[in-house]
Amino acid sequence: MSAIPRARWLAKKSARGALALGMAASGALALRRMLSPAPRVRVLTYHRFGELARDPFCIGQREFEAQVRFLAERKRAIGLDDLRAFLAGERALEPDSALITIDDGFASTFELALPVLRHHGVPAIAFVTPSAIENPDAPAWEAERYMTWAELAKLAEGGIETGAHGFEHLSLGAMSRAAAKDQGVRARALLEARLGRTVRAFAYPYGTLRDFNADTRQALGEAGYEFVFTSQHGAIHEGMDARELPRVKVENGDSASLFRRLCDGAMDPWRIVDSGLSGLQRPAAAVR
Fold this sequence. Notes:
This protein has one domain: Glycoside hydrolase/deacetylase (TIM Barrel), CATH 3.20.20.370. The chain has ten helices and nine strands. The chain has helices at residues 6-25, 28-35, 61-73, 80-87, 107-120, 149-157, 177-195, 214-222, 256-264, 271-276; strands at 41-46, 48-49, 58-59, 97-103, 124-128, 160-164, 201-203, 227-229, 248-249. Strands 6-5-4-1-9 form a five-stranded parallel beta sheet. Strand 7 (201-203), helix 8 and strand 8 form a beta-alpha-beta unit. Helix 3 (61-73) packs parallel to helix 5 and helix 7 runs parallel beside helix 8. It starts with 5 loop residues before the first helix and ends in a 12-residue tail after the last helix.
């Protein structure tokens, strides 16, 4: 995604800020913790890193470092093993812990995000589309290049786990169950063959309500995935279905205070926007 028009940028930033501020000012977050004190986990979604104005998917390295430091200092950063144990009721976590995920596999994950995560000892998952790796004929969605196989291997050495983002970056919800399973099987097989590591997690390309359903959930389970993530906002609670987990998007232009509130649940109600605008969250041409 490139820079969006200034008016749209300001409108979106205002809406996100107003929601987070309103949740805090109204006491809704405190009331939610009082009424439902059970621990929660939020899975944070990033995409790219760098200095691009009005590109919501591109987070500045300084901002990312501050966000990772915030989680590390409060011992709120977790990995997939922690999430598995939490879902099973086997491990207590810090309140409002967070798992960092990075979609799409672009080079800034290796060049900018990896050094920050490694410095703070924070785990993460990079969701990649293996058919795009070192493939000159792969669709170019962004100006930024895709990571190489060698860079992906170094991510794993630095504590970033690799997950699948489809074999091709296509909507699974528009496919038959057999085709969706094939996307999962091929992605997992190629990643495991090239990296020599087990691939446990899948993140739906796009992840809107049009991109997953009961058939895709079953297909990805049959393909061997333990964890499957959507793009629907919300918190994870003990006992939730590990193959339909929500996430919370982190955007360029989010203030430090908004990020802190986001980690505490202020953006969970954005799920209403996810539901109402699912048809506008990605190009119609992406549904094939």
